[in-house]
TrEMBL record:
GO terms for molecular function: RNA binding. Residues 171-231 form the RNA-binding S4 domain. It comes from the Bacteria. It comes from Thermoanaerobacterium aotearoense SCUT27. Pfam families: S4, YlmH_RBD. This is RNA-binding S4 domain-containing protein. Gene3D superfamilies: 3.30.1370.160, 3.30.70.330, RNA-binding S4 domain (3.10.290.10). CDD domains: S4 (cd00165). Keywords: RNA-binding. The keyword rRNA processing does not apply.
Length: 247
């Protein structure tokens, strides 16, 4: 579940009023962008993010008065690391998340989940760390052993991509989405207009939006792609592009 803009605004107002720092729960990339836009409206408020490791996507924000920067350590003390050991080879990231949510834990208390064959590291809020350690006995039908780990022990994820090198009529959003997810441009356009596409974690409903190198696009139900590079133009005017599709 995502934080609402109103909820983030309430936290900012609280920090302004009380002149003290305050932590959010884990925020999605979209929530982080919303928070930064809200913070930009205030000269006296700032924030810092931490997800437990450098490339984490889901992060907790510490919002604080600009004149009172508090945290100069590497990680917030409200973030903990948990390691799940067991035969996880037939289980997915979704299975791990489902088992955690099945304990009655809210999604916003859970950070990134990094699953390997027999190990899965989970970043969690300190509020629920002990509860998970005591109560998570199975993931799916597999028995597991859960232990606490230091954040510097977290095995960072290896992001794997499918390389797609192709030509498109233009670098409009509908063209890139169609090529990246291997669907028709008509279907891509319809899904974009329906609000099912995000560019850099913001909903974009314009098929004609011009995508830039480095932009990351997601299409609901299909995953995520990145326009890695525009390689040039063919004699017939088509554009060579290099797209990365996240596996």
């Amino acid at each position: 579940m995502e934080y609402s803009t109103a909820r983030l605004s309430d936290i900012i107002n609280w920090v302004q009023k009380n002149r003290r720092d305050r932590f959010t729960d884990f925020l999605s990339m979209k929530d982080q962008k919303i928070l930064l836009k809200l913070i930009a409206k205030h000269d006296d408020i700032d924030c810092r993010f931490d997800g437990g490791f450098k490339e984490a996507e889901r992060k907790i924000a510490c919002i604080y008065p600009s004149l009172l920067p508090i945290y100069d350590g590497e990680h917030f003390n409200v973030i903990k690391g948990i390691r799940i050991n067991g035969d996880l080879t037939k289980l997915s990231h979704r299975d791990v998340l489902g088992s955690l949510l099945g304990l009655g834990i809210k999604r916003e208390k859970i950070g990134d989940i990094i699953k390997r064959q027999e190990i899965c590291d989970v970043i969690v809020h300190n509020d629920i760390a002990d509860y998970v350690l005591m109560n998570l006995k199975k993931v799916g039908r597999e028995k597991v052993i859960v232990s606490s780990i230091d954040l510097d022990e977290v095995i960072e994820p290896v992001i794997e991509y499918e390389d797609i090198k192709t030509t498109v009529a233009s670098i409009r959003l509908d063209s890139i989405v169609a090529s990246g997810f291997k669907i028709s441009r008509t279907k891509a356009s319809e899904m974009i207009k329906a609000g099912l596409t995000e560019v850099n974690w913001e909903t974009n409903m314009s098929p004609s939006f011009e995508v830039k190198e480095g932009d990351i696009m997601s299409l609901r139900g299909y995953g995520r792609i990145k326009l890695q590079e525009v390689l040039g133009t063919s004699r017939k005017g088509r554009v060579y592009v290099h797209i990365l599709k996240y596996k």
